[in-house]
Amino acid sequence: MNMTAQHKGAEIGISQLSKVYHTREDEDILALDNIDLTIERGSFVAVVGPSGCGKSTLLSLLAGLIPRSSGEISIDRETISKPHPKIGVVFQQDLLLYWRTVIDNILLPIEIKKLDIAKYRDHAEELLEQVGLGGMAKKFPSELSGGMRQRVAICRALIQEPGLLLMDEPFGALDALTREQMIMDLQSMWSRLGNTVLFITHGIDEAVFLADRVLVMSPRPGKIDLDLKIDMPRPRKWAETHEDATYHGYVREIRKIFEAKGILVAH
Amino acid sequence: MARTDTADISVAKQQRKKSMANAKRKRSREQFAERYSALMLAAAILAIWQVMVPISGLSEFILPTPWAIATRIVSEYQLLATHAYITLFEVLGGFGLAVVVGVTLALTIFYSKPFERAIYPLLVAMQTIPKVALAPILVLYLGYGWAPKITLAFLIALFPIVISTVVGLQSLDRNLVSLVRSMGASEIQTFFKVRLPAALPNIFGGFKVAISLSVIGAVIGEYVAAERGLGYLQLQANSLFDTTLNFASVATISALGVTLYFLLDYVEGRVAYKRDAAK
Ligand SMILES: Nc1ncnc2c1ncn2[C@@H]1O[C@H](COP(=O)(O)OP(=O)(O)OP(=O)(O)O)[C@@H](O)[C@H]1O
Ligand SMILES: [Mg+2]
């Protein structure tokens, strides 16, 4: 089980990656400063950092959505500069197309890549089943709740079994209860699929709970301040983990960095 | 304890059934009212008109009753239809041209900033000219046939189509573009999978305004100089002091506009999904 899972995840290499934005006022903004990072196959990496530190920029670069200013990104040792088929993205908003049914939304990447849609239909239904949305295939997004919609967006990102799943604050818009459920579901889905995940979040707690590794970014220019390995057994249970001293130790360690940088003011 | 629990549940179940049935009944009542309210209002107005004419003592010569107009429409069906076809042809010609040119212009404006800067002021300037003022000039250049009418219908319909299409395309959530780009979509795919479907409700809004305006444009063209068409028939009726035929022509013109409008509405329902359609 673990062996097959390890095969599916992609290996990510980032070296000396920088990103400079040119604003309309002709300013140059250094959003990412010389980032070096290797992500192992099948690992779950969370990125936390204050607003505006360049988390989304990092994700957009990996997704091939914006050009990099310098440096290299590789997936399975292959340098990439445009959107790569091995990568699936989940954004903060679900971004479902409201004129398409749930199933047609999930099959959108297949359509765009001009693959045989009929072949993927069963897989799409299966994914829906796995996220607890069996029988919802023919519904329109407007008939679903926020949590359900984000689940559909996750299915859409997973339809092609991507080696790397990029998630940009995917649960930021959800209420606490739904968020908790989604975090648990994501954990079990990930342990089943075994793909590599880069998970961007504001929440220190969800980062520590989910990840094998938490990267803490500093405010502009974005750099990685801390690369923290999270050593807790899996599967992690919600209540138990939240009472675990190790868990709180990790959370405290990250908070301390934010306090040292003046991002969080200690009381 | 367990007994009361099940009893409560069955009561709750019945309650739920009842409220769902109520909601359904309410919905079907609302649907009925929605569907027929326009017809009922129109019927009421016509009925008042019908009884007011004899009461007020106006002669049918000045204000014919709806009934007289209706019977006239039936008896002169042939004549009205011949002229209606002409007007319909002009309207569709002008509107069709406006759709082709308007959508092309809108796409160019959307994809090219310099073109947008160059063309927008011109379009707005053109829009401020009263199209009626152009009619005599168009006749001068294009003669008495269908050409000036189609041109007028085209000119009057162009602006709303361009504006609504551009606004529709520009109001797209940029994140949706990022989304399909991340799937590897080309610009052509982005256009057909996201930009166009998202803009369709706006585009059809423009089309609907434009088709009504096209009817006005064509008829105004016929008022100025024509040998055929519903506008021409009205002028004929006027010169013969045939008020009933005049009204019958007006009714036909309006029926033409309404039919075309609802045809577009139907097409829109088939191709475009409105954001709040599930409500
Ligand atoms: N298109 C752009 N043009 C100019 N500057 C940009 C652009 N996009 C982002 N930036 C700047 O780059 C920096 C990093 O932005 P980014 O969106 O990556 O932050 P973030 O960490 O995702 O923040 P948040 O947590 O609020 O989402 C910010 O200072 C932002 O102002
Ligand atoms: Mg962000």
Tally of contiguous helical segments of chain B: 10
Instruction: Give the neighbour order of strands across the main sheet of chain A.
Output: 6-7-8-3-9-10
Q: Can you tell me the number of structural domains of chain B?
A: 2
How many helices of chain A?
A: 10
CATH architecture of the largest domain in chain A: 3-Layer(aba) Sandwich
The first-to-last residue Cα distance of chain A is 47 Å
Oligomer: heterodimer
Strand content of chain B: under 5%
Tally of strands of chain A: 10
> Into how many domains do the coordinates of chain A divide?
2
Helix percentage of chain B: over 70%
Largest sheet of chain B: none
Radius of gyration of chain B: 26 Å
Considering residues with a beta carbon less than 8 A from a beta carbon on another chain, report the largest interface and each chain's count.
A-B, 23 and 23 residues
Assigned CATH class of the largest domain in chain A? Alpha Beta
Distance between the termini of chain B: 41 Å
Protein model, in words:
The complex is a heterodimer of chains A (267) and B (279). Chain A is of the alpha/beta class and 267 residues long. Chain A has helices spanning 2-8, 55-62, 102-106, 108-112, 117-130, 146-158, 176-193, 204-210, 238-243, 245-260, and strands at 12-22, 28-39, 44-48, 70-75, 78-79, 87-90, 164-168, 196-201, 213-218, 223-229. Chain A folds into 2 domains: 3-86 and 165-260, P-loop containing nucleotide triphosphate hydrolases (Rossmann fold, 3-Layer(aba) Sandwich); 96-161, no CATH class. Chain A is 37% helix and 24% strand. In chain A, the strands form 2 sheets. A 6-stranded mixed sheet of chain A has the order 6-7-8-3-9-10, sandwiched between helices. Chain A has a 4-stranded antiparallel sheet with strand order 2-1-4-5, with helices on one face. Chain B folds into 2 domains: 1-57; 66-271, Orthogonal Bundle (MetI-like fold). Chain B has 10 helices and no strands. The radius of gyration of chain B is 26 Å and the shape is flat.
